[in-house]
Amino acid sequence: MPELPEVQTTVDGLNKYLVGKKITSVWSDYNSSYFDGKENIKNKKYFSLFKKTVLNSPIKKSERVGKNILIHLKNGTSILVHMKMTGHFLYGEYKKNNKGWLPKESGALRDPFNRHIRLVLGLDNGKSLVLSDMRKFAKVMFIKTKALKDHPDISNIAPDPFQLSMKGFIEKIRQKKSGRIKNILMDQSLVSGIGNIYSDEVLFNVDLHPETDISAINEKKLGEIWVRSKKILSKGIDLGGDSTSDYRNIEGKRGNFQKKHQVYRRSGQSCPKRGCLGKIIRKVVGGRSAHFCNKHQKLVETKIKK
Length: 306
Fold this sequence. Notes:
Blueprint: H1 4-17, E1 23-28, H2 44-54, E2 59-65, E3 68-73, E4 77-82, E5 87-92, E6 94-97, E7 100-103, E8 117-123, E9 128-133, E10 139-144, H3 152-155, H4 166-173, H5 181-185, H6 196-205, H7 219-238, E11 280-285, E12 288-293
Antiparallel strand pairs: 1-8, 2-3, 3-4, 4-10, 5-9, 6-7, 8-9, 11-12
């Protein structure tokens, strides 16, 4: 699933290419009776309303809220997109044939992971913004821009590490009285933006075992997690996101953060920390895979004295 750096990279691409462009056509093959009555373009009736609402409106700007993308239109409507596991936006000149939607140009847009086109927003410059979503999990809906702050899809999103002070971050994390730090870092109701990849990398950098209980971690170490979270997420943005799996940027190109992994998907390899003789191992923690060094990432078991 795209995490904060991948979503921010996408938003940066949207702002680079789409500002001022008018939506002139809308197509989608999302359609599921499971979503009947729900605010989602997979609901056929809702899609008809979505299409009428966004047509002929220029795009004002885009922004990120947590892992959500907001595309603000000049008609006072915002398109909300959560890319979920396999969704990513692409921009280019597309044509439709009996095989589906294909980019006219050769190159990155023809990457196999970019072929699963589920939504096409035609633009007044002859190009299109398309959503590739292999597993069809992405969420797309519209909300009146003025109502965004009160809409549950936005109002319930926790702040991300960049929006919090060290004190605020610690207070958020401490809302959980117990629980494994790996899972707490990925709890979007506490702090948004961190998922499987970046939580592994952060915990490696602060020498913490992913199963360490929050009750055993002192304030100094939690502050260190905040600092490292911001540095590693910033690095992810600078490198254009992580394309270990199917994420691609708006130009159809891979990000490069996966080239800098220290632990994620490196099980069986030697620990990259200087002087450490450990090995990277993989273990399922709370239903999610965790990658960590079996030597220097110590499992702290003693609870902090109150």
